[in-house]
């Protein structure tokens, strides 16, 4: 899945004398919310016609873009394209990969179970992935249900071909997570994923994706919100507050330590929100639950090496 190649193809469709914004290109990919990701892609791998892409304000960003635009008849005054709305090009043709992936998320979301359906939890596996450009360093740490003892740890290095785009983290990280999971023996009873579950625009974040694809109960624990509005920060450590999306409670903000910074817990698959919060709280000896904290340390250690 060559998202960078797709972006480059869209850029080359902008005619001389016309411009597009990052949001226009993101819409050409199928999701206008991916504008920041488009900017990162073009910054790292500029297309031939990158000078025809401007910020939402009309400000050229690529080196030498102002001069090249003027040569093509585009008036740039005060550091911005004059008559931006009239010059914007939006008639893109392409596979709209992000729209296709979002449709897949919505279809698979129907397979998520949001009530408790699991045997006794004895082995909890936390998964984390660190990156160095297009190389992923993934780790899985299996702990007992109390979070006191490490039962197994695996780490691996692999290449990634999907950029970071909020809302599509599973397409970037799941292959590495699955590779770690396949090395665990016996398989863990519960997966704890650094990311969201149903607290997601399509109700199908990476924790739900992993739970459904690997046929395991799963919980999402994220350090920041992607969507949703949390209630007031709990006064005392160990307290939690609802996180609502479009009026529906889809997650919880957990004040897991003395810090007022919360972690955000949501159902991945086969685990109710109430149980997900209870398990996460039990596994927190600091702000981050132990399986995830140790997986994060392991992936960073591998990256340093």
Can you tag this structure with a few keywords?
two-stranded parallel sheet; 2 domains; 32% helix; alpha+beta; archaeoglobus fulgidus dsm 4304 fold; Arc Repressor Mutant, subunit A; 10 helices; 305 residues; nine-stranded mixed sheet
What structural category arises from helix and sheet content? alpha+beta
Order of neighbouring strands in the sheet with most strands: 7-6-5-8-9-13-12-11-10
Which architecture of the largest domain does the CATH hierarchy give at level 2? 2-Layer Sandwich
CATH-defined topology of the largest domain: archaeoglobus fulgidus dsm 4304 fold
Strand count, sense and barrel status of the largest sheet are: 9 strands, mixed
Domain count: the total is 2
Through-space gap between termini? 29 Å
CATH class type of the largest domain:
Alpha Beta
Mean pLDDT: 96
What general outline do the C-alpha atoms trace?
Answer: elongated
- Element string (H = helix, E = strand): HEHHEHEEHHEEEHEHEEEEEHH
Helical region count? 10
What is the CATH homologous superfamily assignment of the largest domain? archaeoglobus fulgidus dsm 4304 superfamily
* DSSP summary, beta strand count: 13
Instruction: Indicate the radius of gyration in whole angstroms.
Output: 22 Å
Task: Bin the helical content.
Answer: 25-40%
The low-confidence parts are none
Beta-strand percent range: 15-25%
């Amino acid at each position: 899945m060559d998202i960078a190649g797709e972006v480059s193809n869209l850029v080359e469709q902008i005619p001389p004398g016309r411009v597009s914004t990052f949001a226009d290109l993101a819409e050409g990919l199928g999701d206008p919310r991916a504008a920041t990701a488009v900017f990162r892609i073009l910054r790292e791998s500029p297309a031939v016609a990158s000078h025809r892409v401007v910020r939402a304000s009309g400000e050229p960003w690529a080196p030498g873009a102002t001069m090249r635009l003027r040569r093509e008849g585009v008036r740039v005054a005060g550091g911005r394209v004059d008559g931006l709305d009239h010059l914007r090009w939006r008639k893109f043709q392409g596979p709209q990969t992000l729209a296709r992936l979002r449709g897949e998320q919505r279809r698979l979301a129907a397979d998520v179970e949001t009530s408790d359906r699991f045997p006794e939890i004895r082995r909890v596996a936390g998964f984390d992935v660190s990156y160095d450009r297009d190389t992923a360093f993934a780790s899985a740490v299996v702990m007992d249900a109390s979070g006191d003892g490490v039962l197994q740890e695996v780490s691996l290095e692999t290449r990634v071909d999907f950029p970071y785009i909020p809302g599509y983290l599973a397409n970037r990280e799941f292959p590495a997570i699955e590779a770690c999971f396949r090395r665990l023996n016996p398989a863990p009873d519960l997966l704890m994923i650094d990311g969201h579950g149903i607290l997601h625009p399509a109700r199908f974040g990476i924790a739900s994706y992993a739970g459904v694809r690997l046929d395991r109960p799963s919980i999402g624990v994220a350090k920041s919100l992607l969507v949703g509005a949390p209630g007031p920060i709990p006064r005392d450590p160990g307290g939690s507050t609802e996180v609502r999306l479009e009026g529906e409670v889809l997650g919880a903000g957990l004040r897991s330590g003395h810090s007022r910074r919360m972690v955000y817990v949501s159902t991945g698959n086969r685990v109710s929100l109430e149980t997900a919060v209870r398990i996460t709280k039990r596994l927190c000896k600091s702000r981050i639950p132990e399986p995830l904290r140790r997986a994060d340390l392991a992936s960073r250690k591998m990256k340093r090496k």
